[in-house]
Amino acid sequence: MARLLKWLALAMGVACAGIGIYHVVLGIGSVPGDGGTDALTGATVDSRERFYNAIFFGYGMAWIWVARQSPVPASMVRWLAGFMFLGGIGRIVSLAQHGTPHWFQIPLTVIELILPPLYIWLATVNERRPVDASAGTTG
Fold first, then answer.
1. Exposure b/e, 98-128, CB count within 10 A at least 16 = b
2. 97 located within any domain
3. Fewer beta carbons below 10 Å: N end or C end of the chain?
4. Could you tell me the pTM of the whole model?
5. How many domains in the chain?
6. Which range marks the domain in which residue 12 is found?
7. Is 42 inside a domain boundary?
8. Quick check: helix, strand or coil at residue 108?
9. How many helices (H) and strands (E) does the chain have?
10. What is the spatial distance between Cα 106 and Cα 103, in angstroms, rounded to a whole number?
């Protein structure tokens, strides 16, 4: 389970960091279905898109940092997974208030609501596994 958790945390980190950089570089052009029709709206959305995705890049780097720890820190996995779950909840609120977004946002919402409980479960299982007392001793 520890190896699976490390691999999934690394995959999450690489994906989030890559997505963050993609959006920082392309700005509003990276947003599917963006409806910014006037110059002020376009500039505002572009600015917000680049700013938030710089933070999303940092979020991805935090996952990569977690994946590189041995053992993987379960508390950090729980925090990072919780933030992703909160993002999924935010998408549900948006859907309820504003209706269905671009189709691509729907699978992202599903991922953001399903993966966090998996990460939390894996972190808990990994945290509770017995520690090998002979590891790290010389003899």
1. eeeeeeebeeebeebbebbeebbebbeebbe
2. yes
3. C
4. 0.84
5. 1
6. 2-128
7. yes
8. helix
9. 4, 0
10. 6
Q: Hey, is 71 helix, strand or coil?
A: coil
Classify residue 77 as exposed, middle or buried by CB count within 10 Å of its CB (0-12, 13-18, 19+): buried
Say if residues 23 and 53 touch (Cβ distance below 8 Å).
yes
Helix (H, G, I), strand (E, B) or coil at 67: helix
**Better-scored residue on pLDDT, 129 or 37:** 129
Structural domain contains residue 137: no
Task: State residue 38's pLDDT score.
Answer: 58
Residue 134 located in a structural domain: no
% of the chain surpassing 70 pLDDT: 87
Hey, which bits of the chain come out as E strands? none
Q: What is the distance of C-alpha 39 from the center of its chain?
A: 31
Convert the pLDDT of each residue in 59-99 to its tens digit.
999 999 999 999 999 999 999 999 999 999 999 999 999 99
